[in-house]
Amino acid sequence: MSIVIYYNAVTSLREEIEQSSINNLEQVRNLTDEGLSELVTLSARISLDPRLTPYMISHPYYGGEATDELRKYRANSAIVEELFVYYKQQDVLYSTNGSYSMSALLQNSEELQRVGREDLLADLHTDVPLIQVASNRILYLVPISPNSEKPHGTVMFFIEEATIINMIRNLLGEIEGNVYIFNKDR
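Below the sequence we write its predicted C-alpha cells.
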C-alpha cells in the first residue's frame, strides 16, 4: 500500500513541477513576444513622427531635434540599449548620438564588423522584421513603411544579450537549463 501511495505522490509532484516549468516558459515566451511587439510599435511611431522624416532627420538644423526625439523613443523601452534609423537611398544611419556614415558605424562597432557591410546593408533593406545576433548584442531590425507596403527604411534596435538573459532568469528563477528562441522558420 505504501508503494502505491509513494508512486502516486511522486507522479503527482513530478506533474506539478513539469506544469510549473511549462507555465514559466510560457511567461518567458509571452514577455519576449510583448517586448518585440513593443519594438514594432515603437518603429511605427518613429516612422510616423514628422520630426523623423528623411528630410528632417538629415537637415543640418532639424537633425539635432531628431536626435533628441530618438533619445525619447529609446528611453521608452526598457530593453533597448541603442537604436538607429536608416532610410534607403542614404548611406547614413541616425541614432541618439547623431548620424553615422555606414563606414564610420562599422569602424566603431565590433558587433557590426562581425556582421559585415554587405550583410548589414541587406538586413537594412529587409521587408520583414528580423533578428541578427552580433557578439553580445541582439540586433532587431524592423522595416518602416508608413502608408505603403514597400518599406523605405529600417529601425535597428540594439539589445544587450544580458538584458534578455536577466529577464528570463527573473522569470525562471532557479531552473537550470537552456532556453532557445525560435521564429517560424527555425
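The longest strand covers residues 137-144.
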